[in-house]
Write a structure and sequence with these properties.
Elements: E1 2-5, H1 11-21, H2 28-34, E2 41-48, E3 51-61, E4 64-72, H3 81-93, E5 100-106, H4 110-119, E6 122-131, E7 136-144
Length: about 150
């Protein structure tokens, strides 16, 4: 499996995975904005046999990485793809000086929470009513990385 940067040409495949993975998927326009050069967003794709099987991305805000998306194609879940993507995001953040990572995850998403905890994220609290369809709290998770300098 190849992990590479996501490009605007990937958006049609991203949208297919997005609709499978999320109850309130992002639009094509949102992804195109995210992928504009020189912005704060950084995204990666997981590709197997020329087929995108997952993607993940973060926003850089000073020395923080805010993980915005981690998604895997339905038939490829629980095969370590999400973990590989997250590990690659953390590595991508090292030369950018990112020391703190954060994300929100549905309180009921035990599989995702387990993955994030495996990588080292810890829960810092709940954000009530964060998600819609259905209304649900977000588990706010953080990870502090050691400086690579």
């Amino acid at each position: 499996m190849l992990i590479r940067r996501l490009t605007p040409a990937d958006v049609p495949e991203v949208l297919l995975i997005e609709r499978e993975a999320f109850r309130t998927p992002w639009s094509e326009e949102t992804f195109r904005e995210e992928l504009k050069e020189g912005g704060r967003a950084h995204y990666l794709a997981a590709v197997e046999n020329e087929c995108m099987v997952g993607y993940a991305g973060f926003w850089q805000v000073l020395d923080e990485g805010h993980i915005m998306k981690v998604a895997t194609r339905a038939g490829y879940r629980r095969q370590g793809i999400g973990e590989r993507l997250l590990t690659a995001l953390l590595q991508m953040g090292e030369p950018l000086g990112i020391l703190y990572w954060t994300l929100e995850v549905r309180e009921s998403n035990a599989a995702a929470i387990g993955l994030y905890e495996k990588i080292g994220f810890v829960s810092a609290g709940l954000r009530p009513g964060y998600y819609e369809q259905p209304k649900e709290a977000a588990n706010i998770m953080w990870l502090k990385r050691e400086s690579q300098k």
